[in-house]
Structure formats: C-alpha cells, structure tokens
Amino acid sequence: MIQLKVKGMTCGHCENAVRKALEAVPGVERVVEVDRTKGVAVVEGSPDIEALVAAIREEGYEAEAA
Questions:
Q1: Which residue in 13, 33, 47, 50 has the most C-beta neighbors within 10 A?
Q2: What is the Cα–Cα distance from 29 to 45, expressed in whole angstroms?
C-alpha cells in the first residue's frame, strides 16, 4: 500500500475529488482510504508515486509521500 499525506481537504466533496483523481492514475488497483481528518490517502497497486501526487495537486490540494 502507498500512503500519501494530503493537506487542504475540508469536506466530503474534497475527499471525493481526491478519491476520483487517484482512481484515474494508471496502476491504482484500489483507493483504500481518503480521510480529511487524518490528512491521508491510501492506495493499493503499483502506480508512480509522483503521478499520484500530481493528480492530487491538480485538484488543488497539497500532497507528498508519507
């Protein structure tokens, strides 16, 4: 599993936006968790970590590998 730190999520809409962005990244098998209170997103699969970070940033949130 790959865990990312995500900053800027404040509501359920934010979580959904991050989830959809991650699901679209090649290599993601499943988005396990997106939690605004913990500031994390967890995915399964073998995607490029930089692609995950870029997808989240394109939605307007800050992200980095945990």
A1: 47
A2: 5
